[in-house]
Task: structure prediction
Amino acid sequence: YAACLSQLERLAAARGVRIVIVPIALPFDGDALVAGVAAAITPRTRLALLDHITSSTALRLPIERMIPLFTKRGIPVLVDGAHAPGQIDLDIDRLGATWYVGNCHKWLAAPKASGFLAWSAQAAATLRPLVTSHGASASYGPPNRQHAELDWSGTYDPSAQLAVPAAITALTEEGGGWPAIYARNHALAIELRARLGGTRIAPDDALGTMAAIRIALPAGTSPLAFQKRLLVDGWEVAIADVPDGPFVRVSAHLYNHAAQAELLVAKLHSLGAHLI
Result:
C-alpha cells in the first residue's frame, strides 16, 4: 500500500536500511508468492511488512503461510490488515504476527478514524505510543500498561472507536450473522466479477469480498481523473493506478446486488472505457 511504502522509505532514509519488495505476478499464484517471499529472506532481514488483502488488486494473500517464514527466524512481522476486518473471518492470534493493524471504517461500516492495533506478547515490552501522555505514569490508568499509554493521549476523541460495537451489531442483525455475511458477500464479489467480464487475475479462493478487473481507459485519461468523473455522476468506484493496471475494483457488501454489474458496465462504456 502506497502510504505504508512511504513510511518505510522515510525510515530507510533516516536509518540507512534497504527496502526489498517481493513482486506479485498476475495472474495470482499463492504458491509462487510464498516461494518468492521465502527466497527474499536473508540473515540481514530485520522486519517484514505484509498486506493481508491488497487494496488495488483485491488479493487475499496467504499470510498464514508467510508469517511463519519470518517468525521462525526471529524476524518481527507487521501486517497491514486494513481491508480484512468484516471482509473475511479473522483470527489474529492464530496468524501469529508481531503486530496486526486493521480498520473498522471499511467493512465493519464504523465511523472513519476507527481502527485497532493488536500485538504479540513478545512485542508488548517494547510497544510505546508516538504521543507521551498521562498513561506514561505508572500511577495512572489500568494495570495493562499498553492500554494505559495507548488508549488515551492528549485531546484524542474516542467517539469513533466507541461506535464500533454498535456497527458490528447492526451488520450482524442486518446480515443474519457474520458467517452468512462473509459467504453472501464473497459469492456476490465472484458474481460481480463474472458479470463484468474481462480476464480473471486470481482464483476465487484468493478473493475476499472485492474483485479487480483490468480496464482500458479513454486515451489521455488518467485513472484518478476517470475515478473523479465517475464520482461526479454518482458512481463511487475505485480505479486503481498500478503498474499491471489500471484496474476497476468492485466491492460487495449487504447494500450491493448483482444487477449493479450490468449498470456499471454500461456506465463505463458510456465514458469510453472497457474491461479487458
Notes: The chain has two domains: 2-168, 177-275. The radius of gyration is 20 Å.
